[in-house]
Protein 1
Amino acid sequence: MTNPLEITDLVYKKNQKKIITDLNLTLKPGKIVALLGENGAGKTTLMRIISGVAKNYRGSVKVAGFTKEADRKGHLSFTDGLTGFANSTKINDIVKFYQILYHDFNLKQFEQLRDFMNLKPDLRLSELSKGMKEKLVIALTFSRRVDLYLLDEPFSGIDAMARKKIIKSIILWKQEKSTILISDHFVNEITAVLDEVVIIKNKTVCMQKSTEAIRADNQSVEEFYESFYQREEEE
Amino acid sequence: MAIFNRYFTVLFRLKTKWISLLLIIQTVATFAITFFNFHNGHLYLNRSIFSNFFTLWLAIFIVFAWLFTGVFYLSTCYQNEHVSGNQTWRLVPIDDKKLYFDNILSSFGALLFFVILEIICTLVLGVVTFTFDSQFHTTIIEMFADIGRHLQQVDLEIMFNFFGAIMMTILCAFFGYFIISFLNYSSRALLDFLPEALSKAYFRVIAVFVIILVAWLAIKASDIGLQIISFPFRFMLGETTGTNDDLALALVLMLAINLLFWFLDTILFSKFFEAREGK
């Protein structure tokens, strides 16, 4: 089966400054992978390159075997901040937008997720708090049937209780063969669902390890991540 | 092709969303101006021509129609650039070249729709004025008779001039979209390419350059615009001056310039112009 994501020799520069250099990454189908790294490490940039909204990079990016940006966009779902909509836009209108433009959008799935998130369909964006907006973004992202889900810090504004509930349910919302790449600062909260950890440091992927292997070393993912940085600093 | 049509539909809806509001504002504003001018005697127009309330309203409405069409055109220009640089719109699985063309085409479609609505509103007000103002009634009948007489003299050259003027207006509208996109994309691409410190300084230079260019274009456009706007009136009065060669050459040149900018914009948009991060 084709890998949902294959990146080879990726280099990305902006303002003559290297943001990503010689990055290689392959994700297998059906995995939930954490993308970890410090602020400004290039996690969001990497996701934007994968989803075809960041330009002018070198190297190869394949999503479900497709290299063309339009095809890639059709096989991935990225947590977008919904900045394209006016604040007066109702949730219903956003759903219509998704229904018209994304052929893989599943309305039934969205209705279930919307209920789960306690979001009323006639609410306007201006009436949503940061956490509620993030819940809506998660519901929209998982209502598409795609090979790769890119979740860029999706829980930062959501309260702890709801966050735990959502994280536990993520595994139910994705299709069996779909892969999730998730960047988040709440490492300890997402570890339960993770299959792999990818760490970005010095503008490239410097570690990709399964959570099984980490636990075999009698370490939690959080401990592994912290000790990785400590080791690097000592060296 | 399906995604192209669906994307066009969504963009067209977005761009025509506030048309009704704009038309209501125009109608109310022109009514209010007419009302205060007519009843307070602050009329700077010819009293003998505008002796009827509706005639004055119609005249003011027509003047405002040009103004509001300009405002609406500028709003479509803004929306073009907003869509181009927005992550929500850029994440849609459509090829960038098609997205760019869809964006421009939907803007033009929205503009055309607005112009048609303006014409319909003017006609409705025209019919009301025609019914209530006997002087206007007579003038219109005379004018149509005059046009009828001139129509018998219509030859291929006049027809070409007439449709050429319409074509030139359409090309000018597209040119506006293309040049604004070009300035936006090229400056953004340069800012992303240059080192950060230099980039800020460069931005100021670009801003000054853009202001000068816009001023120059506005002066040029007003000359061309006046010629285009006055053409139908000159045609009605039987004054179709200018040669076919001039117009044909201008049309070909304008078409070539539009094609060139369309090509450049497409390259810049698909290869260098990034959507802004949307969190």
Protein 2
Amino acid sequence: MSGPISLTHNKYYSWCRDNLFSSWINGIITILSIYFIYEVSSFILNWTIFEADFVTNFRGERIIDRTFCSKNIEPGQHGACWAIIIVRFHQFIYGFYPVEEAWRVNLVYGLLPFALVGIFFDNLPFRKYFIYFTFLFPFIGYFLLYGGIGLDAVGTSKWGGLLVTLFLGVTGILLAFPLSIILALGRRSKMPVIKTICVIFIEFIRGVPLITLLFTANVMLPLFLPEGVRPDNLLRALVGVTLFQSAYMAEAIRGGLQAIPKGQLEAAQSLGLTYWQSTRKIILPQALKISIPPIVNTCIGLFKDTSLVLIIGLFDLLGVGRAAVADIDWAKLHYEVYVFISLIFFIFCFLMSRYSLYLEKKLKTDNSN
Amino acid sequence: MKQGIITLEHVNKWFGDFHVLKDINLSVSKKERIVVCGPSGSGKSTMIRCINRLEEHQEGKIVVDGIELTGNLKNIDSVRKEVGMVFQQFNLFPHLSVKENITLAPIWVKKMPKAEAEELAMRQLEIVKIPEQANKYPGQLSGGQQQRVAIARSLAMNPNIMLFDEPTSALDPEMIKEVLDVMVDLAEGGMTMIVVTHEMGFAKTVADRMVFMDEGKIVEEASPDKFFNNPESDRTKLFLSQILHQ
């Protein structure tokens, strides 16, 4: 808005008048909308916070099973009973990981951001050392989580909850990324054999549901491996998830590659750069930048799809939640469990989405929108 | 035909069934400035793109500075180090700053230390008269400035030969002069140049020889004086009358 602001009308007043009450119809819609927002948000806030139980019920008793929940004592008068989350918190976050060893998982959670910042922010001070750490991290993480020298071994069958979700999501995405770049470049290769292999791989993986892939990885993978080598369930799921993600990401990247004008490669070649130099310094940086939205789209999709590992017997966040709901002591607290799980998924997906916006903004080098 | 720094002998090229270059013979000697003109689709761009192997010719022989262009990748690399190219669409790298555009090839192809490459880039930007734009991105520059950066980027590889593929065709009229000025400087500095252009004023100023192409053939080759004042072929006369009276 331009023009002088009169003394009696401050800018909030005139903004409201111009945008919310510019006509009778607009005014009525505004009032109805405000009423609607008030009703919905007061219901949500009351249910989740003000009328909800956390550790104790309305009588002040400690909640140890569902019969203590206020809403089960006085039906229809109370909000959520979060005690189910609090009591089973360990399972949600660590699965069946031994309680006394949970610090190892915490340490991995705590180190994870340090392993990722180096990849995510290129203007970071001492970035080089963060990147070194990124390459070390899989080994540190594996050692801490799985155990080994000096640490008790904790088999992956005991992993669960957020740990499995994050393990599959983060590792799957990070492993799929380089693979997908190779697939996308291979699909555009002039060498027929490489091109055919990449096309078949991508089309096959994209053509089957993730569930099928997970089943296949679970059942078929041992058949291809030598006798006696039995990769554990989680690893099989990781293979399935990584292949799935790499095919989708490859197509997202191929879209970006196709958007780069031919002149870019010609200019690079005429300067004497080799194919790999041109690809690495000229084509990929631009193609990946264009592909950020679809890449993040597939990442968010995959992160949520990791919950499908439930069907091959792994207890990810959703699996643990379903187990909680099925527990006789805590039955019929679906809402609490699913709201909590949704919230955790939402936080991670939202972070990915925001990061992609940050990246797009940072990489913008012209004055266009 | 005397042996030149660039020789094309009986070069033929097809795009599918379309015969785009028909028996091209051309010899360019060192420090010679050739201007190639002709109607669109006559094969002039294709011809110069064959000289640094952005296009592959199917028949005939192309030799650049003693190196024959064949499928041999090593030869192609050596030729590309000798030959700089400037494109109609500039083809600057939009994700790199002006300075990075120029230092990229010296650092990666010539393995030049970064500081030295940056010094070189600044010298090249002085030559094309825009050192103050060094830290901007191509998207922030005008067309004329972008094309001058593209020239600086090519020059940074210290080529013996420069190819220009309609360098001013994508520019607004008021920016053409600043680019042509840089090219005139370059010509006066003794660079071997092949320029595809319709800028006849430029051709008259700098060209040692005019080459006129039509339908994939070289129709006429002559000194600018003869070419403009006394062309032999009727096709050339028609072309000149159209281009000079627009």
